[in-house]
Amino acid sequence: MTIPNPNENLIAGPIPSTVAEIPQLEEAPEAKPFLISFQRYNSKECQLDGMDNKMARKALQVLRDIGVNIKTEDDFKARLPKLEVVPIENNGHYRCLYKGLIDLPDAEIKEAKIDRDKGRLFFFLVERIFHVIAIRD
Question: Residue 112's pLDDT is what?
Fold first, then answer.
């Protein structure tokens, strides 16, 4: 076995631009915000219809901010620091939120507190989709 001489077989000229740069037609998936889905929306558990206008407006603003600003689960703390997000268990008053998720036994429902003393948004994440379950007062 011989060691190749670096001075041999040199190709003169620059690297062709077609080889030097790979065109990216699309943004990386991590750069795109979450998609918001109401496919698993539970109208029996949602209290949006009975909310006062101020709380309903705040709930809508939170959904807008999630759809515009949140690209990863870590972004909740970084981009929406006032929104407290905590996981909930399938017991007590929260059991009814899990009823429509029998086909998704590993779904982890989370509660986002919209305001200090009232207003809660229940959701779970599957890949890049933010599934809204209910909004409560």
Answer: 94
